[in-house]
Amino acid sequence: MERLTIETTPIDGQKPGTSGLRKKTKVFMQPHYLENFVQSIFDGIGGVEGKTLVLGGDGRYFGDRAAQVILRMAAANGAARVIVGQGAILSTPAASNLIRKRQTDGGIILSASHNPGGPDEDFGVKFNTPNGGPAPEDVTNRIFEATKAIAQYHVLEAQDIDLATLGPVSLGGMEVEVVDPVADYAELMESLFDFDAIRALFKGGFRICFDAMHAVTGPYATEILRNRLGAPEGCVINATPLPDFGGGHPDPNPVWANELMEAMHGPDAPDFGAASDGDGDRNMIMGPSMYVAPSDSLAVLAANAERAPAYANGIAGVARSMPTSRAADVVAEKKGLACYETPTGWKFFGNLLDDGRVRLCGEESAGTGADHVREKDGLWAVLLWLNILAATGRGVVETMQDHWRTYGRNFYSRHDFEGIETEKAEALMDDLRGRLSDLPGTNAAGRTVEAADEFSYTDPVDGSVATQQGLRVYLDGGARVVLRLSGTGTTGATLRVYLEDRSEDPATFDTEVQEALSGIIAAAHEIARIQHHTGRTEPDVRA
Ligand code: G6P
Ligand code: ZN
Fold first, then answer.
1. Is the minimum distance from the CB of 367 to ligand 1 under 6 angstroms?
2. How many domains does the chain have?
3. Domain end point (choices 181, 205, 227)
4. DSSP letters along 240-258, please?
5. pLDDT in tens, 350-403
6. Would you please indicate which residues are annotated as catalytic (active-site) residues?
7. Sign of torsion over alpha carbons 75, 81, 87, 88
8. CA-based, 20 to 30 A from 463: which of 200, 222, 343, 451?
9. Which residues form the Alpha-D-phosphohexomutase alpha/beta/alpha domain (predicted)?
10. Ligand 1 pocket test: which of 15, 251, 346, 375 has the largest number of ligand atoms within 8 Å of its C-beta?
């Protein structure tokens, strides 16, 4: 097998975003595009000579072919071994687990998460460091620098290897170890939770519907919920991963998980509903006719985590991304837990988890996780919920109502304005940024602005600083409006407006969320001049 060195030139725009490099699949399929980026990952981390990597993805279109290219490149770059999921499949949390468990030098995950897949949709490549977490900014910066300096890449001239058969196989001197993508992950889950209690719950007739959205969690959920926990047949829907996710967005929210939404709002709704995204790191939790907002889910998990064996001795602290509602902060305060506010992006939790400052983290974008891996983890969140329900004997609706009675309710919603011209979106942000210091004391839609700033974060562990992480406007009564531009889109700009209002009056707890937030929504439009800058009066998505 010949080791080829291919001359190449830098390709513009290979800058990793919130979660690796995400582009249209066709962009990735252009000559040298994938190869340039993969070589830049290798160069950016000081080469892979003698190293061991993990490789896998969410099964989306082009993932299998990309995996073969990456294997040939790893071999040509002198890697010792690549542990790859059978069929090039690994959920993001399962990849994180393998990176850690096998003490590897990191891993490459092929996914664009919840973005749709297919020849005309999205693809992505992400590097995770040896702690199992997404590469922090200094690493992604080095990778980006490498993409700008690249002059050649190395690749082995070889046929595809068989990724369908388990076991080790040699590729030009490098060992490729094809592993069952589910086994290690399922074992990890079993070590964290009281599977006996959850098994007894199902035995007692508790009904669950898990929507895998034709994405990677199908086989994981089937093995864990069905085979290990005995949930009834048919409890996992859309369980077969498809390269185009059946044409949908594998994004677990009330808009895209419509099949689950219907089931949970029907007359014969199961007791518990859940869904996960393309690569298995996001989660959505529902009770009969009730959607649990991710921010509320984090707060409930923080309040009840000790019910699960892994957290019986406490969780030390909790961290949330800045735009996530402050419901978890209320729990942290009452329970004497440390509480951290980080920029959007799971990578910012890594140091806090590594340092033992927090054991539980969450984001409004449907991500919840803990210190068992360094990614958010969809099925883990489902299992922790189930463990809590099994231990308390209460249902989802009752649990939420109890929670609000104890801690108050932070009404919360995110409004997305998608496909805005980048210049217009930036003009809106610049305009508001310029007015922030004038806002305190002013009125908007009948509410008073108490404070306003632009979020920047200093990591308490390594002192690194992230600036310009979102504009925050605090209003009276514990309300807040946050604005930022999405870092994960592939076309134009998405303006995210995060809306929060707080109530301690139980008479209000059942108010419909958009209605409860109507005053804050009006205030947000007025403060940010959304229509003036974008021409929009209504969002595309209310999450
Ligand atoms: C990904 C990241 C999350 C982040 C989310 C939203 O899922 O892993 O950490 O919260 O994207 O990012 P965005 O920049 O689109 O709001
Ligand atoms: Zn994801």
1. yes
2. 3
3. 181
4. S--TTGGGS----STTT-H
5. 999 999 999 999 999 999 999 999 999 999 999 999 999 999 999 999 999 999
6. 113
7. negative
8. 451
9. 14-153, 184-286, 295-407
10. 346
